[in-house]
Design a protein that fits this description.
By secondary structure, the protein is of the alpha+beta class. The protein is about 35% helix and about 20% strand.
């Protein structure tokens, strides 16, 4: 074994360790990606995707499938430190098998956004930034309704904080078609609950202290009622049994609370939003701009 000193660069992730915080970014990787895509000098975009964009598997002209898959694959690696592009990357990834001109246009828009935000990074303050000395888990869960044009499936979003720091984020298309916004929100909340239960156990093993039940914030009142009230079971018989795991979690393992849509941080992972809303959410999920000189 050899001591290589303080970690500064690993698997294209730049690490800066200070006395009170750790910064993770991929500025150099983003620059290389833009060069490989032939967009090193492209114009800038304020958001990763156009607001309310809808893409379909059917379009007008095909593009180079190998090139499309290569660029999108590299974009997926960039999401390790860039939760602000998770939804956009996940959306264009749905067309890896059948890529058309509209899809490539969306990818180029995403690359234009990365050109103007390559210095964005995640900052992890000492102690999680909670200020109380105790690390606690909290999460946000959200879902759109039938956002997928072709299959009419909804998109679930996951955002988990440890203290004031995001530690896991996810945007994924649901495997079944939801028949209501209640069902879509319920399925999304069940997905987050599984992660929270596992992370709570892991945190307890690492610290030797049993953490408090984490708080799961959902902006869907009917979904919360369905999770808390077994009497509503007659209205949810068609929902897969595995999603009712959420009910068991609510009985002591997690605390589910309502959050207003305006304060729903996971909203950035379910759909493309306008510039002002996007910039607001980006700052609230822990993204900060790290000047070039600070990470070199």
């Amino acid at each position: 074994m050899s001591d290589l000193g303080v970690l500064s660069y690993y698997l294209d992730i730049e690490v800066k360790q200070g006395s009170g915080e750790v910064t993770l970014g991929q500025r150099a990787y983003a620059r290389k990606l833009l060069e490989r895509a032939g967009m090193a000098n492209c114009k800038l975009a304020a958001t990763p995707m156009e607001e309310r964009i809808k893409l379909s598997k059917q379009s007008t002209a095909e593009v180079d499938a190998m090139h499309y898959r290569s660029i999108v694959g590299e974009l997926r690696w960039l999401t390790h430190t860039r939760p602000d592009i998770v939804f956009a990357v996940g959306y264009v990834s749905r067309f890896m098998e059948d890529s058309w001109e509209d899809h490539w246009t969306a990818v180029k828009r995403l690359l234009r956004y990365i050109q103007g935000s390559a210095d964005q990074a995640l900052v992890f303050p000492k102690g999680g930034g909670s200020g109380e000395g105790e690390l606690e888990l909290a999460a946000f869960s959200d879902a759109d309704m039938a956002g997928d044009v072709d299959g009419r499936r909804s998109t679930s979003s996951v955002l988990v904080f440890l203290g004031a720091t995001p530690v896991t984020w996810q945007s994924l298309k649901q495997k079944t078609v939801a028949l209501s916004t209640c069902e879509a929100g319920y399925v999304a909340a069940a997905t987050v609950a599984c992660q929270l239960v596992w992370m709570r156990r892991l945190l307890g093993e690492l610290t030797g202290i049993e953490p408090r039940p984490p708080v799961l914030k959902v902006d869907n009142q009917p979904a919360i009622a369905l999770a808390k009230n077994p009497v509503l079971y007659d209205r949810s018989k068609h929902i897969d049994v595995k999603f009712h795991f959420l009910r068991d979690c609510v009985e002591g393992q997690i605390v589910i609370e309502f959050v207003e849509t305006g304060q729903q941080l996971a909203d950035i992972f379910t759909k493309s939003v306008g510039r002002l809303r996007f910039l607001e959410l980006r700052s609230k999920i822990g993204m900060v701009e790290v000047k070039t000189g600070q990470q070199d």
